[in-house]
Design goal:
By secondary structure, this protein is of the alpha/beta class. Helices cover 47% and strands 11% of the residues. It folds into two domains: 3-244, TIM Barrel, CATH 3.20.20; 250-293, no CATH class. The chain starts with 13 loop residues before the first helix and ends in a 10-residue tail after the last helix.
Length: 303
């Protein structure tokens, strides 16, 4: 049904719906969806919640993931994904776009855009992808202040605190930070760039009862694990942050190379979403029916 007049639009806030998915148990699978079309396709595949990656947003804009984009630009992506799917979305909030007051502004803006959850990280700007080297960390105290600010500003938003400390401060440092962030008001912890099953298990064993998020990105430091394997290691959420964008980008690269070589798209037609498939995915017939059902405005004749 079109989002403009859907009878099954969720009435409960996205943050409460996201929290309920975590609290029911098991592991919540959160595929990255970098735009509204990806969100519709993920929903059609049966996913109950989605992830919006900072790396995917910036790359789709032709920019590196260095904390360049703004709250308003991210809110535009959130509106697309949340509106198209109706699902609760976990959003990458980078470092919070500034200090405590900026974090509070971000939380309110993301909630108003339709986000169900956000994660904040303890890097300094210019921040880097979590699987790159030489990341610079904020002090644990400063990060805890940001988490506390987010908790004070939110209405229902689910707050995940990410720590990149394992690479430079070891497991002890990462766990100490995670405990401080939970005390500051986080709902869950995201230990970034763990690189062995043993590390994932140790972190989980040292944070009993805390919902944990795992990042299953390709071409990074984490070996491939399935959602079931992460669940067995003690994790409640798993993201595949940039996978949809990577697949789309590779397909586009092939398309442009084909046009350049052949002067035609004919060879690529078998790999294309058809017109009928596109219209079915975006609900064109529903929109047309909705448009036809609206009574035209009648302008009274002058007396």
């Amino acid at each position: 049904m079109p989002y403009l007049l859907s009878s099954d639009l969720p009435t409960e806030p996205a943050g409460l719906r996201f929290r309920a998915l975590i609290e029911r148990g098991g592991i919540l699978r959160l595929p990255g969806s970098h735009n509204g079309m990806a969100a519709l396709q993920a929903k059609a595949a049966g996913f109950e919640a989605l992830y919006l990656s900072g790396a995917a947003m910036t790359a789709s804009m032709g920019l590196p993931d260095l904390g360049i984009i703004t709250v308003d630009e991210v809110s535009f992506f959130i509106k697309q994904v949340a509106r198209a799917s109706g699902l609760p979305v976990l959003v990458d909030g980078d470092t919070g776009y500034g200090e405590a007051l900026n974090v509070m502004h971000m939380v309110r803006a993301f909630e108003e855009a339709g986000a169900g959850a956000v994660h904040l990280e303890d890097q300094l700007l210019p921040k880097k992808c979590g699987h790159l080297n030489d990341k610079k960390l904020a002090s644990a105290h400063d990060m805890a202040a940001k988490v506390n600010a987010a908790a004070k500003a939110r209405r229902n938003l689910y707050i995940v605190a990410r720590t990149d400390a394992a690479a430079s401060e070891g497991m002890d440092g990462a766990v100490a930070r995670a405990k401080m962030y939970m005390e500051a008001g986080a709902d869950a912890i995201f230990p970034e760039a763990l690189n062995t099953a043993e590390m994932f298990r140790e972190f989980a064993s040292r944070m009993p009862g805390v919902p944990l998020l795992a990042n299953m990105t390709e071409f990074g430091k984490t070996p491939f694990f399935t959602a079931a394997e992460f669940e067995a290691m003690g994790y409640r959420m798993v993201i595949w942050p940039v996978s949809s964008l990577r697949v789309a980008n590779k397909a586009q690269e092939k398309l442009y190379a084909t046009i350049a070589a052949d002067g035609s798209t004919k060879a690529m037609v078998p790999e294309m979403q058809t017109r009928a498939e596109l219209y079915a995915t975006i609900g064109l017939a529903d929109y047309e029916a909705l448009d036809a059902s609206i009574v035209a405005t009648i302008v009274p004749e002058p007396v």
